[in-house]
Amino acid sequence: MKQNLLDLEPAAMTAWFAEHGEKPFRAKQVLRWIYKNGESDFDAMSDLAISLRDKLKQLACIQTPKVMREETATDGTRKWLLDVGTGNAVETVFIPEEGRGTLCVSTQAGCAL
Fold first, then answer.
1. Residue 28 sits in which domain range?
2. Which of 53, 96, 98, 110 is deepest in the core (most CB within 10 A)?
């Protein structure tokens, strides 16, 4: 089974890269691609060696939670129920405001939408 890199905190990702024969800074590079650039395709991570990209495609994935249900209110508020695995789900709510938005993420699995 491939390792979902989104399941790893930065220190754990650094350890995972080391376990697979890579230098620790590789974790920071991949984290930057994921969280700064919003990238989930290893082939697009152009500052990684092709051999590392190929290794990552074999051993890892970047899999976001599946949206189980989505609702949109008349005021633009959006709710998502996300499958976080092992039969658990969390609710996420986006509340649009003038010039900005607020995102609320449940910290407890099993909440109803």
1. 3-61
2. 53
